[in-house]
C-alpha cells in the first residue's frame, strides 16, 4: 500500500473518512482533554490543531497543542508499526490493532505502577514497624535508668 492511498474495504467508510472534501466543512472538531499534570483542564483555553494520523487529517481541540501533537504522533507511529508488521491494509483494522497495542502498554504500565506502589507501601510499613520497635527499646531503656 502506498502512503498516500488509503485502502477502503467498506463502502460505509467513504462517508466517515475524516479528510473527504464533502465532509470537511460539516465535520466537528474532536475535543481532546489533556490528562497530564502541566495543563489545568478546567481553566485552560482550548486551541485547534490539525494533525495527520496514518495519512488522514484530523481536527483536534484541546488545551495543549504540543501534547495533542505528541499523542497524534504516538498513534500514527503505532498504526504504521502495525501496518508494517501485518498483512492487513484496512485502516480501521490497523487502527484497532494499534489501539490494542496501546491498551496493552497502558495495562502493563498500570500493573507495574500498582506493583511499585505495593512495594513502597510494604517498605513504609516495615520501616515504621522497625522505628516503632527502636523507639520502644529506647523508651524502655530510659524507664529503667530514670
Structure description:
The protein has helices spanning 12-16, 21-24, 65-85, 91-145; strands at residues 30-31, 47-53, 56-62. It has 146 residues and is mainly alpha-helical. It has one domain (12-145). Helix 3 (65-85) crosses helix 4 (91-145). It is elongated. It starts with 11 loop residues before the first helix and ends with a helix.
Protein traits:
three-stranded mixed sheet, disordered N terminus, 4 helices, 58% helix, mainly alpha, 146 residues
Number of strands: 3
Structural class: mainly alpha
β-strand percent reads: 5-15%
Q: Any idea what the radius of gyration is?
A: 26 Å
Q: Write down the overall geometry.
A: elongated
Number of domains: 1
Determine the mean pLDDT. Answer: 80
The quaternary structure here is single chain
User: How far apart are the termini?
Assistant: 87 Å
Major sheet summary line:
3 strands, mixed
Q: Residue share in helices? A: 55-70%
SSE pattern: HHEEEHH
Strands in their spatial order, largest beta sheet = 1-3-2
Low-confidence stretches: 1-27
Q: List the total number of helices.
A: 4
Summarize, please.
The chain has about 150 residues and is mostly helical. Helices cover about 60% and strands about 10% of the residues. It has one domain.
Q: What's the layout of helices and strands?
A:
Elements: H1 12-16, H2 21-24, E1 30-31, E2 47-53, E3 56-62, H3 65-85, H4 91-145
Helix pairs in contact: 3-4
Amino acid at each position: 500500500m502506498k502512503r498516500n492511498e488509503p485502502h477502503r474495504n467498506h463502502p460505509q467508510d467513504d462517508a466517515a473518512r475524516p479528510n473527504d472534501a464533502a465532509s470537511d466543512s460539516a465535520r466537528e472538531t474532536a475535543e481532546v482533554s489533556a490528562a497530564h499534570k502541566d495543563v489545568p483542564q478546567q481553566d485552560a483555553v482550548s486551541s485547534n490543531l490539525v494533525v495527520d494520523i496514518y495519512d488522514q487529517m484530523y481536527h483536534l481541540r484541546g488545551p495543549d497543542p504540543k501534547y495533542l501533537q505528541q499523542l497524534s504522533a504516538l498513534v500514527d507511529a503505532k498504526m504504521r508499526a502495525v501496518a508494517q508488521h501485518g498483512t492487513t491494509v484496512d485502516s480501521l483494522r490497523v487502527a484497532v490493532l494499534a489501539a490494542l497495542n496501546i491498551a496493552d502498554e497502558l495495562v502493563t504500565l498500570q500493573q507495574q505502577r500498582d506493583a511499585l506502589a505495593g512495594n513502597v507501601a510494604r517498605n513504609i510499613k516495615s520501616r515504621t514497624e522497625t522505628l516503632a520497635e527502636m523507639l520502644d527499646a529506647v523508651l524502655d531503656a530510659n524507664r529503667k535508668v530514670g
